[in-house]
Write a structure and sequence with these properties.
Length: 235
Amino acid sequence: MRAYRGELRKLTSLPSVWVAVAVGVLLPAALTFLNARAAGSNVDLGFQELAFGVVGAIILGVVAVSSEYTTEGENAGGGRQITTSLTAVPSRWRLLITKLAAVITVVAVLATVSSTITLVIVETLGVSDFGRLPGVVLYWVLTALLASGLTLVTRNGILPLTVLILNTSVVTVTYLLTKLTPLAAFFPDLAGFRMFIERVDLPVRLSPVTGGLVMTAWVAALLAAGFLSFRGRDA
């Protein structure tokens, strides 16, 4: 429990985390407000915008891991944070579990707050559906864990941030791939959408439960690869 609290303090002390919180809360709310008048009978109003807001969860998942490999200040000896972390928690397995638990906690709270604010805006139009909120929260949490897994493998935050944010907000490469093969519908982001978005133009239609299971399988595989990489590398 002490290690978990330490990881929570470490995570919330990072300046980039507060940037992620601002993005995660303000982006979907602002987009929903702007799109509300033109939405018409769009049953996914608010939920599509929350799919963009997951950028905040991506940032959180990446920096929680990549911050371990940044150089500390001269007062701390100029070493990397991972050395200090392993001194406090020698077990790499325990360190990773507590770190991921902290990520899950912060992202779940962020997703809940962001979803509530966004859906309250939609509620003014009488078309919101709070029953889909758990799907949004789970999608954000799984996306953050996916980002953490990729960062564990690469041990660098730039590549995961670039790939995941671009795919989420600029050019959805995974969606374009569905035009080439229906198997692309099983990529984690597209499968995860099914947990809370009703109208998705994909060649394979997955139920919310199946979509969640597919995304969970991807996350489990990446975290397993990340842990094996983390365990086998020098600090």
